[in-house]
Design a protein that fits this description.
Strand content: under 5%
Number of domains: 1
Number of strands: 0
Largest sheet: none
Shape: globular
Structural class: mainly alpha
Oligomer: single chain
Length: about 250
């Protein structure tokens, strides 16, 4: 029994390392970790809740690293986080079920849209370090991140791609996009995790094993994002999105 638990913990730590790396740079790591947790015998709802432990710890480390390197636009991050918190609470409490196949196709479509936008990079000429927050831009961001919060609270998988899209269209470079992304996800994941804990849908042992790998992967990815910059991250995002979109469409 003990040997089995050690093997499970080691497997989850290894998967978590890869998931944490792609989560910080692009997104979609939960498309690796959720099936792994279910494979180890967790019900889908418990796997969804357990995965939030790893996401939370991963992003705590990533936020700290982005802050130390002064690439996190804090005002923008806080603005995006406020509506996402409310959305996350609502999403985590949703009792509505959706057809799994339909969900996969919708998510694949979103990811392919991110891939196309990322490859074309139409906002390159207007890219700036800090957004100019006009009244209408603030309204658009609030509405957008409220919807992102609902989605992230409900399922988490792929929410990073939505945040990347929401911020790229405003001309932010991908280093700062990722910094804002991990900040927002870190805060709203805490709210969602509390909801799952309240409903008894968290396995703490497996969650902490997964979190160990996620934290290391996220730390490595943060350092690489800062050192290599926008163009390198764009390539990583493009490859990651394409792989996960194909997986969703044809699995």
């Amino acid at each position: 029994m003990a040997d089995t638990q050690i093997m499970q913990a080691g497997l989850l730590a290894a998967i978590g390392l890869l998931a944490g790396f792609v989560n910080v740079l692009a997104g979609g790591g939960s498309l690796l970790t959720l099936p792994a947790l279910i494979f180890l015998g967790l019900p889908a709802a418990t796997a969804n809740g357990t995965n939030r432990i790893a996401i939370l710890i991963q992003n705590i480390f990533a936020v700290g690293s982005f802050r130390r390197h002064r690439v996190l636009p804090l005002r923008l991050a806080l603005l995006c986080t406020a509506p996402a918190l409310l959305g996350s609470y609502l999403g985590a409490n949703l009792a509505v079920t959706i057809d799994e196949r339909l969900f996969q196709r919708l998510l694949a479509g979103i990811m392919l849209g991110v891939l196309l936008f990322n490859m074309l990079d139409p906002m390159k000429r207007w890219r700036r370090e800090e957004l100019l927050l006009s009244r209408w831009r603030i309204v658009a961001l609030l509405l957008c991140f409220f919807g992102i919060g609902i989605y992230g609270g409900f399922v988490q998988a792929g929410v990073g791609f939505l945040i990347i899209t929401a911020l790229l269209i405003h001309g932010l470079d991908l280093v700062r996009v990722n910094a804002v992304k991990v900040f927002v996800i870190c805060i709203f994941t805490l709210i969602a995790l509390m909801v799952f804990i309240r409903h008894g849908q968290v396995n703490y042992g497996l969650g902490l094993a997964l979190a160990a790998g996620n934290a290391i992967g996220g730390f490595i990815a943060t350092r690489m994002a800062i050192s290599k910059g926008h163009d390198w991250i764009k390539k990583v995002v493009s490859v990651t999105v394409l792989v996960f979109a194909i997986k969703l469409l044809f699995s």
